[in-house]
Structure formats: structure tokens, C-alpha cells
Amino acid sequence: MTEPLERQAIISGAAQSDIGRRLYRSGLDLTVEASLRAIEDAGLTVDDIDGISTYPGMGGPFGGCSGAELHDTLRFSLNWRDGAAETSGQLGAVHKAVLAVAAGLARHVLVFRTVVEGSRGAVRAGGGGGGGMGGMPPAFQYLIPYGVTSAANWIACYAQRHMHEYGTTREQLGAIAINARTNAASNPKAIYTDPMSMEDYLGIRTISDPFGLYDCDVPCDGSTVVIVSHRDYAPDAPNGAVHVNAMGTALRHRPSWDQFDDLTTMAMRDSASSMWERTELTAADVDTAQLYDGFSWLAMVWIEALGFCGKGEGGPFVEGGARIAPDGELPLNTWGGQLSGGRLHGFGFLYEGVMQLRGTADVQVSDCEVAAIGAGGGPESGCLLLTKGIR
Amino acid sequence: MTDGPPPRFISPHAEGEFYWTAGADGSLRLQRCGACGRYIHPPGPVCPYCHSRDLNPGPVSGKGTVATFTINRKEWIPGFEPPYVFALVELDEDPTIRIGTNIVGCAVEDVAIGMRVEVEFEENGEWFVPLFHPLDES
Ligand SMILES: [Zn+2]
């Protein structure tokens, strides 16, 4: 295999703003806070940053801040900037930053995702998608009239089919939620930290069968920033370099919530397989997985898509929680995930992956050298394979 | 659902208006390619299979099978009273096409994957909204 282009990129810095249910601060304010921390963390100054990349950019869902606002506020001098929602999921912003660095368009790209959901008072029991009625794209015009405006409903249909075909149970979904809650207790920034038992999990009302409240992530306010740099900078990164080994971007079938060819998986099937096509590493090399859990079931299908178990075996794999615990064979969502840590919209997983590879996570996985990061669901997803040192 | 039709916020795109009016004569219609005969959903300006633009609404039996569903128990939209079932129905004519719909005419708990269903229409302002009810084939 010729060296994939992404091997030229590292993550040299990472930081978050304060994170909370309702901080009553602007998205720009939070983004500036995280940006300055991340730039310092990378051993750089504002003048060193010559690129900005963000998801979803101006006007996107749960918007916190546009790239242009940040650009102007800190008076960056840029060689490249990008922000868009039509990409390989939330991590598309990272994928594009990596490409910009590898292409020589920029040397140090500040990549961010900011959410200000809690403070908008829009406390919605369900993750992404959803929303307005007017001027919706044609594909949504065949869903919205039936009273399903939330991704909770759309994804619930897939989870239901997964249960039907493979015998997946609510208890198995609960193992993902409980694992997240248990890990969140050690994360000082997490939103939900009270212990949760299986009885608690099963006892809550369902919102959209089979999902109950604890299958849905929790809205929050917060900004996450990583600095993507050229690997030449690795020796100078004061907190160490996390290397990009491979990225997954594919979507090989219809980009649709309701017309996807397989009702038991989603776009991650394709992005995950495209990632493994770009590396000599395999699922067996992964020391921790930080996988999107906007809904509990999404993390389960990410586990299947990345090949940590076979298709349809995600339920038995997570059952009881031992395999996905911090000392298990696949430590999952060690920061609490979006289910308990907060809906940082993909970037919480990325941040945690970087901390794990640096060895500075709140719930640290021992000898952590390879981390798989996956974000997204429905018709958009993307993933990253990160390593400590170059592999 | 109770007390008259819920708000459905139908505002069709150019190629899709027929879908919401076809039920006036009691039959469901899908966009169909005059060249290759395939059904296309959602409707578009060109056949995705043969790129023909000879596309017209074609009647279908309105019979199908519940591919999957969810019982929605939360009120997202005032006037759209839970619980109600949202389902994806695979039509007999082409099971690769899934029709999003509400299942009516039975208790929400009675809906199941694999259940046979048949279209009916709800008059909702100027639109005829395709809904599905259990089909008794015995
Ligand atoms: Zn055709």
C-alpha cells in the first residue's frame, strides 16, 4: 500500500471550553475559549494558525459559531478555511483539515465544533436531524407529514429492525448507556454523572420504541477544538503528537434516512470499511473505541461496522458491559459519550481519543496506542484511526 | 390519533405534488419510468436507473408489508397526539421502495414487522395523505 495521504497529519493540540447544560454564553465565546486553550496546548500562537475547519459551518444544525466569526474575532491570517455540513459526518471537518495539511494548503489548522443547545432552551429528547417544516429537502417531505420530526424516530425504526432480525434486546442497548454513565462519573465536565442501574434504564418511559430517554443523548453547551498540523511539527508539539493513520469517508448507497439498502445498519457501514481499506492495522489492533452514541444503538452498529464483532452480533458483544468497560477488550466511550458526557456532536469522541493516546484521560485505558473514532449516523458518518506515534 | 387529522405540514416539491393528490380517486401512485418501468421514490426529475425523463405517476396496488416501525410516544408537534405508529412499508410492486406512513386501524401495540398492510387516504385540506391499515388476506 502506498502511504495514504492522511499519514502526513498529526493532532498537535486539543482542548475544550467549559461544558454544561446551560452556560448562557455565546457559541463564539465558547469557541474562543477552546481555541486559545488548544493553540497553547499545541505550543503555538494565533499567528501560527493558518487554517480553520468546522462542522457544520454557518446555518448548520445546533449551530454554535461560524468559521468566519472565529476567523475575525481572533484576527487569524489564513491560507485555507472550510465549514460545511455536507461532508463525511461531523468528523468531515477533521478529514478536510487533514487533506489541507497534506496538500500544503495550510500547516496548522484549527478544527472546531461548538454546540449551544442547552442555553437555547431547546431541550429535545433526541439527537440530530429533526427540526423545521418549511422548505425542507424533498427526502424529508415523506417523513415529516407523519409526525416524525426527530432522528429519534428515524433511528428507532432501524433499531427495531435490528432487534427483529438479530434478537437485540433493550438490556443490550442499556449496557451501552450504563457504560457511558459509569465512565461519566469520572469526567468533571460530564452532564449526567449519577449512577444508573439496569432497573433505572428499563424503568424510564419510552419516547419512540425501542428508545427510552436514556437511549438519547443529552443536549449541552460547549466547544471542542483540535489543531491538525503537518507531522513535521510532531517533535515540537509539547504535549505529544497523535498521528492520523487512516480516515473513513465512504457512503456507497443512497444518502437517505428511509431508503438506505439495509435497515439494520447505517452510513457507518461504508465509512468504516473505507477506513480499513487505507491501513495495515486491523480491528484487533484497536485499544479504545470512541463511537457516536447520539442514540445508544448507533454505538452498537458502529461496533459492528468497524468489525469489532460480526454483523448483528453487537447486542451479545456489549451485553453485561464487561467487554466495553475501561478494562475490557474494547474500552468504549470512556468519557461518558454523548449519552452522559453531553452532545458535543462527534467532537467529544475525538477529544477523548486524543487524551487516551496521550495517556491523560480521566478514565485512562492502559497501554493505549490505537484509537478508533467514529461519528455520525443516518446518512452521514465518518471515522478516524489515530495512533500514538506513527504506525 | 384522535379528533380530526393532525397537522402534516405538506409542502410538496415540484416532482412530488402528485403523491399527495393521487389518493383523490382512491389509488396510491408512485413515479414510474416509461422507459424501464421502474418505480422511483421519492420522485425526481430523471430516472436514476436509465436516465429517461419519461416519468409519470403510476398506480400501485397499495398493498405492502411493514419493514419496520416505531411507536412514537412523545408529543413533538401540537395536534399530533401520541401514541402513534410511524412505519416504513415495502410495497408489493417493488420492495426496495419504502413508504413512510402512519399505521391506523389497529392498536399501536398490534403493529409488527412483517405485518401485511393496505393503503387508505386521509383527507387533509387539499391533500390525500397515504396511511396504511392492517390487510386481512384470509
Ligand atoms: Zn428508467
What does this structure look like?
The complex is a heterodimer of chains A (391) and B (138). Chain A has 391 residues and is α/β, with parallel strands linked by helices. Chain A has a domain at 5-120 and 219-236: 3-Layer(aba) Sandwich (Peroxisomal Thiolase, Chain A, domain 1). Helix content of chain A is 28%, strand content 17%. In chain B, the strands form 2 sheets. Chain B has a 5-stranded antiparallel beta sheet. A 3-stranded antiparallel beta sheet of chain B has the order 2-1-3, with no helix packed on it. Chain B is globular, with a radius of gyration of 15 Å. Chain B has 138 residues and is mainly β. The two termini of chain B are 27 Å apart. The mean pLDDT of chain B is 95. The interface between A and B is large, with 36 and 37 residues. Bound molecules: zinc ion. Residues 33, 35-36, 38, 47, 49-50, 52 of chain B line the site of zinc ion.
Topology:
The complex is a heterodimer of chains A (391) and B (138).
Chain A (H helix, E strand, L loop, with lengths): L8 E8 L10 H15 L9 E4 L12 H7 L6 E4 L8 H11 L5 E9 L34 H16 L3 H15 L13 H6 L2 E3 L2 E2 L8 E10 L11 E7 L19 H9 L11 E4 L4 H10 L8 H5 L18 H5 L5 H12 L11 E8 L2 E9 L3
Helix pairs in contact in A: 5-8, 7-8
Chain B lengths: L16 H5 L7 E5 L5 E2 L14 E5 L3 E10 L11 E8 L6 E6 L12 E9 L2 E8 L4
Antiparallel strand pairs in B: 1-2, 1-3, 4-5, 4-7, 5-6, 7-8
The complex binds zinc ion.
